[in-house]
Design a protein that fits this description.
Strand content: 15-25%
CATH architecture: 3-Layer(aba) Sandwich
Structural class: alpha/beta
Subcellular location: Cell membrane
GO molecular function: ABC-type oligopeptide transporter activity; ATP binding; ATP hydrolysis activity
Radius of gyration: 18 Å
Shape: globular
Strand order of the largest sheet: 6-7-8-3-9
Number of strands: 9
Number of domains: 1
Bound molecules: adenosine-5'-triphosphate, magnesium ion
Distance between the termini: 31 Å
Largest sheet: 5 strands, parallel
Organism: Simiaoa sunii
Protein name: ABC transporter ATP-binding protein
Keywords: ATP-binding, Membrane, Nucleotide-binding, Transmembrane, Transmembrane helix
CATH topology: Rossmann fold
């Protein structure tokens, strides 16, 4: 058969500026990522790597061209589908008011405790959480975890929804070597069987095929 598999993610000739009259950030950018592929977006600082993620997340529409996820316009994907479609992990963790469990579920109580524990296990954070006085019901303050542990918690938050696609933006930046290794191990578990696009400008953190933008 000559029929081509549908890419999981595809940018077709995308041109984008944050405001109509401002400088173009992306110029006729095209690439495809197939289901199950793990790729790294690479490019100098300011090249527009994080901007590509914002387009995939449906936060902006391109001026020209198409941003497609499973053949659908990323901007048209309903909010309620997004969590099971993709997990987005960035450099900083955005803590929500509430417990450790709330950080993982984002208050979605359709997740069972078993799913929450499994997500924490994937992140390598289950033992740490169980040592807290109230475990998953411990109220989260900024002090209860270290920087690396917050980063692991953001992996648990993404993993709980078992998303088909992981978008990882410089998630090991600013971590010491040992913590970076822990985060990379957690990622390896979280990425299993998924399509993964990661952003890095550090060569040792690049995985899979490199897409230069
Ligand atoms: P880095 O490697 O430093 O993270 P990047 O490749 O991720 O860089 P982007 O964050 O996508 O780059 O930024 C690309 C350009 O778009 C930069 O010049 C940046 O200043 C600009 N930019 C980013 N966000 C906005 C915004 N919300 N409004 C206007 N301009 C923006
Ligand atoms: Mg960036």
């Amino acid at each position: 058969t000559t029929e081509e598999e549908t890419p999981f993610v595809e940018l077709q000739n995308v041109t984008f500026a944050y405001e109509d009259d401002s400088r173009k950030i992306l110029h006729h950018l095209s690439f495809k990522v197939y289901p199950g592929e793990q790729v790294t977006l690479s490019g100098r600082t300011g090249a527009g790597k994080s901007t590509v993620f914002k387009l995939l997340l449906g936060l902006y529409q391109p001026g020209e061209g198409k941003v497609l996820i499973q053949g659908r316009d990323a901007f048209q994907i309903p909010e309620k589908e997004k969590r099971s479609l993709y997990g987005y992990v960035e450099q900083t963790f955005h803590r929500v008011p509430g417990t450790v469990k709330d950080q993982i579920t984002l208050y979605d109580d359709s997740f069972t405790m078993e799913e929450v524990r499994e997500a924490a296990r994937i992140a390598g954070l289950d033992a740490t959480i169980e040592q807290l006085e109230k475990g998953y019901d411990t109220l989260c303050t900024s002090e209860i975890f270290s920087q690396g542990q917050w980063q692991l918690l953001s992996i648990a938050r993404a993993a709980v929804a078992k998303p088909k696609l992981l978008l990882l933006d410089e998630i090991t930046a600013n971590l010491d070597a040992q913590t970076e290794e822990e985060v990379l191990q957690a990622l390896k578990r979280a990425a299993e069987g998924r399509t993964v696009i990661s952003i890095s400008h550090r060569v040792n953190a690049e995985i899979g095929r490199i897409i230069d933008i």
